[in-house]
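QUALITY CONTROL LOG
STEP: pairwise intake check
CHECKER ROLE: data steward
CRITERIA: each record must contain a sequence immediately followed by its structure tokens, with no blank fields

ENTRY 1 OF 2
RESULT FIELD BELOW
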Amino acid sequence: MRSLTLGVLAVTSMMLCGCGGVYYNTMEKLGYAKRDMLVDRVQEARDAQEEAKQQFQSALEQFTAVTNFQGGDLEKMYNKLKGEFDRSESKAQAVTKRINDVESVGEALFKEWESELDQYSSPDLRRLSEDKLRQTRLRYARVVAAMRSAEMKIDPVLTAFRDQVLFLKHNLNAQALASLQNELVSIETNVAGLIQEMEASIAEANAFIEAMNRDEKK
């Protein structure tokens, strides 16, 4: 039990210090192939985007509720909106981290795969491996591009939400609400664009996962 605990701590410390190559090699010795780790990372990134998508929809609903405020405790409404913004910011950070994780293990996998090509003595087997590497790389490039494209849509939405939350913080009155209403259409458009990009990215991630799992069964 002590040796297992130490092993887990060692692997965890490698993750924290950014020793990617050592970490992945250690995980492989524990029975986790880089290919499987890549699929897992893509799944985690997909799930993070799905959670972020839902959170931004929730934040937009709360923002709309504030602009339609008809009376009551305005400060309470502000606190709800601030909470939605904080959660949106947290989900956005999680998306970026998960995409970075995908790229980290992807780079390690392809670097190792390329280095192993020279070890083949059979030209036919090497050619088959090269073809599979090329196909996997293309799939990987598509899913990462889709994820980064969706990620780029996040910051403008967060910036707009942040501005409105900051403005409302010091202007809890009807005039401030009228100002927020002027921004509602723009924010709705930006959120709709973000959700569309995220859904496309999630679909691309699902296609990647299905293709990788299908190849594994061949």
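ENTRY 2 OF 2
RESULT FIELD BELOW
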Amino acid sequence: MDLSNYRKTYEKRTLLESDVPENPMQLFQTWFYEADENDGVDEANAMSVSTIGLDGYPKTRVVLLKEYTYEGFIFYTNYDSEKGRAILANPKVCLSFFWPNMERQIIIKGEAEVLAENLSDGYFESRPLGSKLGAIVSPQSEVIPSREYLEECLQVLEQKYEGKEVPRPAHWGGFLVRPQSIEFWQGRPNRLHDRLRYTLTEDYDWRLERLAP
């Protein structure tokens, strides 16, 4: 199928150096709030997480951002999954948010570290019962015999923990991605898009640069 004629004109907004703060996390928060309030964005916190696997190949998957602070970006996963093992072996990751209805994209490069256990415990405790049990029952990324196998394992766990607290399994928890660079992309006419990149310096200041589209 020839897609060469698929084109869209971007002309909703601009992104100028004079309009952005010194700290990229402030700009991220502004853009995130605007995306979250936009009716055309279903899940503003959905982001692509790219890693380098143990086989040397890159892989990207969509994960939900659960928290962001001035330290970085937090998401949760199974540490024994393909994604978890890849991050533990090579913590350099890339996060990407794309909000096409707003003609905006954010690309974050950084290093991931295992989140403190008390923070993972706190988030796990806030999850619905089904999500807690799902985190225990699913050997994420492993080959399983059938869908029925998963459902049978879930039934066993439901009986085991009926009326009881479900503890967070050791193989499940959060990652904190500390950003080294954050690029903001705003679509513009004639493919002359605005690209502003913040890079963390050795003095822990942010350097702002404009990139050619």
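INTAKE CHECK: passed for both entries
DESCRIPTIVE NOTE, ENTRY 2: The radius of gyration is 20 Å.
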